[in-house]
Design a protein that fits this description.
single chain; mainly alpha
């Protein structure tokens, strides 16, 4: 005799019980187009079909590198900005103007 088909609620309850049993936590994160493309490239290069699997592997491998080895992977990229001479002069002029206004307000 066949078992009756489970309802959606029963399937959801079973999945939730499995997640609790395995101590799983859901991770949600929004990605901008460029980052999403990078993740898709990584997945394609390595034949990974599930995003969750790719993220889990990235975390596990970065962790295996230890604090020093993983530091470059998690370093926030900094961008250098060197203003043109014109912009420097404008900023200096505006700074002097604002300083003069503040000096007048203190009087």
């Amino acid at each position: 005799m066949r078992k009756p088909a489970k309802t959606q609620a029963e399937r959801s309850a079973a999945a939730a019980a499995k997640r609790r049993r395995l101590d799983e936590t859901e991770l949600r994160h929004r990605l901008r187009r460029g980052t999403r493309t990078m993740l898709e490239n990584l997945m394609r290069w390595h034949g990974i079909e599930e995003q969750a699997e790719a993220i889990q592997l990235l975390i596990m491998h970065a962790h295996d590198l230890g604090p020093d080895g993983s530091a470059p992977l998690l370093a926030i990229p900094r961008h250098d900005f060197t203003p043109s001479e014109f912009v420097e002069r404008q900023l200096e002029r505006l700074g002097r103007k604002e300083a003069a206004l503040l000096d007048q307000q203190e009087l």
